[in-house]
Amino acid sequence: MSVIAVYSMKGGVGKSCTAVNLAWNSAVGSSRRTLVWDLDPQGAASFILKGGQAEKDRARAMVAGNVKPSKLIKHTDLENLDLLAADVSLRGLDRLFFQISKKRHLGKLLKEMSKDYDRIILDCPPGLAETSEQILRNADVVIVPVIPSPLSERALTDVQMFLNGKGKKHAPLLPIYTMVDRRRSIHKQGLIRKPKWPVIPMSSAVEQMTKLQKPVGSFAPRSPAAQAYTKIWRGIEKRLAKK
Predict the structure, then answer these.
(1) What is the pLDDT of residues 88-104, one digit of tens each?
(2) What pTM does this model have?
(3) Pick the CATH number of 2-242 from 3.40.250.10, 3.90.79.10, 3.40.50.300, 3.20.20.450
């Protein structure tokens, strides 16, 4: 089992859409038994995957150890893809991790679920706090969506500096440009600065995801965005295979 976290210190960068589309490629394209664990209290990934209304506080209770993950994991409409949905109780997740004082707690939960899955995709909450640290410590790969603008790129630099300052081992950060509009000069400048970063173009297909509640690959497989997500997923699989 490998853990792929989709994380950003900033919100609004296409994080949840990226998590869902990578999970679709894992489950459908690679035929991997895949779980999306939505840790973001906004629950965007849960909504897209039709997670429905979770019982109040169940997500936090599961993390605390009061509810077994198997009680909350649901099958989605897609073969090989399951969902551990978010709810608003996850807003207190940082406080919970601080209270229980267990640096390896998230890792133990992931290990408990590992017997049933080949890939676990984490849709992480934005910010940089205890939850983020636990995720970065336990993931095998961290995908960081970045809009090609100085502020968004600065947020990535802040995370890298924070991790380097900690001096502890963490998963490799793999930035990708999202919501790219090549007509905009600021975006074109970003692509010039980081020509090797993968690019997810601005796309009406991605915008349709929340309306249709489906990953892009399931309704627009030939769109540039769907093809870009597939290419990124293949790169992730190659990296995991080497590991």
Answers:
(1) 888 888 888 777 766 67
(2) 0.93
(3) 3.40.50.300
